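@channel sequence for tomorrow's demo:
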Amino acid sequence: MQLKIFKEPPIDNNNYLLIDEESKEAILVDCSAVDSNIKKSLEEFGAKLKYILLTHGHFDHIAGIRPTDAKIVMHKNDLRILSQSNQYLSAFGIPDIKIPEIDIFINDGDILNVGNHKIQVIHTPGHTQGGVCYLINNMLFSGDTIFKESIGRCDMEGGDFKQIVKSIKTKIFTLPDDTIIYPGHGEATTVGWEKVHNQFM
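C-alpha cells (generated this afternoon):
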C-alpha cells in the first residue's frame, strides 16, 4: 500500500492518498483543495480513485471535491456542517463550491475495502458529531479528533470537550501502541506516544 501525503490550503490540511498497487484501487482521506499532484500520483500507478473518505464535514476538509466517479463517504451527523461550507470559504477568499453530495453514509464499525485491505470506520464525536477515524492496517487517519500532543477544537457547532476525550480514550487509546496516527493537521504520531504526552488526556 502506497501512502502519499499532500498538505493543502486553506489551513495546511493533510490529505492522504492510499494506493493499493495490486488492485490499482485508491482512496483519498479528506479533500481540501484541487491538486493536480493527486491526479499525477494516480496516473503514475495506473490507479483509480474508489472512495473519498471524509473524516468530518468542515469546509477545510471538503473544499477540493469536484464531480468524480469516486464514492464520497461521510457520517450523516455532519450534514448540517457540510451544508454551511460556503459561509466559511468566503472568509478565506475562496469562491463558493457546489456542496458535494454524499454517496455513502457510514457508522461506527462499518468496513469498507480497498483491494484486499479493510478500512474500519471508528466514530469519534467531539470535534463534530459526525467525526470519524479510518483504520487501515496499522494506520489511523484521525481527521481533527486527535493531533500530535493535542486534540481538535471543541468550541464550534457540534463540539464537546468531554465527548472528544471519551472518544480518544475509548476508541483510539484501545488500539495497539504502535498504531500510527495521521491527523488532519500537523505531524504524524502514534497511539503510544499520545498516551504519554497528550496534555488533554
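heads up for whoever presents: The first helix runs from residue 36 to 45.
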